[in-house]
Write a structure and sequence with these properties.
It is an enzyme of class 2 (transferase). This protein is mainly alpha-helical and 163 residues long. Helix content is 60%, strand content 9%. Bound molecules: adenosine-5'-triphosphate (ATP), (3R,4S,5R)-3,4,5-trihydroxycyclohex-1-ENE-1-carboxylic acid and magnesium ion.
């Protein structure tokens, strides 16, 4: 959460001239309300069910799919991520992410949480992020343009390796 998936995904899609879909945005569009409202009125379990449905449906989409930070929390999503495409994990020092998102009202799991609780959530997810990734990009201390440049370089290397 707060690693920059949506921000970087959007920029990368402009650079690569391809489509970009964000699972959080798709959920909000389909539900006609915000994630904060979904969590408040229907609960996290409902949100997670919707998230899996939307992730499954991205099989039909071409381009960049950016996901919610908790997408790897379920085994079914982990399997889907492996199956659906090439998965990139934007790794970042958790303290940097906490600073960006702590108490952000749009992120229900970041509200009223201490720094320690946020870091614990990240640590509990970390093995699954790593297992689900085809490529890991460390973005710690990188600005948005620097992250984009690093990502672009890694993708180019990969394309050269595949040719
Ligand atoms: N490398 C970066 N350096 C500084 N700020 C950044 C960086 N990447 C993203 N941000 C900022 O951090 C905030 C969170 O970014 P973003 O919404 O892209 O994260 P996310 O990974 O999509 O989070 P979520 O898992 O909640 O969807 C935004 O305000 C964004 O501008
Ligand atoms: O890390 C998480 O569990 C979340 C991250 C966001 O992208 C949203 O999907 C939602 O706020 C939950
Ligand atoms: Mg996002």
């Amino acid at each position: 959460m707060g690693a920059g998936k949506t921000t970087i995904g959007k920029e990368l899609s402009k650079l690569l001239k391809c489509s970009m879909y964000d699972t959080d945005v798709l959920i909000e569009l389909e539900e006609g309300t915000t994630i904060a409202e979904i969590f408040a009125n229907k609960g996290e379990e409902y949100f997670r069910k919707k998230e899996t449905e939307i992730l499954q449906r991205t099989e039909e989409y071409e381009g960049i799919i950016t996901t919610g930070g908790g997408i790897i929390s379920s085994e079914v999503n982990q399997q889907l991520l492996k199956k659906l495409g090439f998965t990139i994990f934007l790794q970042c020092d958790p303290l940097q992410m906490v600073k960006r998102i702590q108490n952000d009202p749009t992120r229900p799991l970041a509200r009223n949480k201490s720094e320690r609780e946020m870091i614990n959530l990240y640590q509990s997810r970390l093995p699954y992020y790593k297992e689900s990734a085809d490529m890991i990009i460390d973005t710690t201390n990188l600005s948005i343009p620097e992250t984009l440049k690093k990502l672009e370089g890694c993708i180019q290397e990969l394309e050269l390796g595949n040719n």
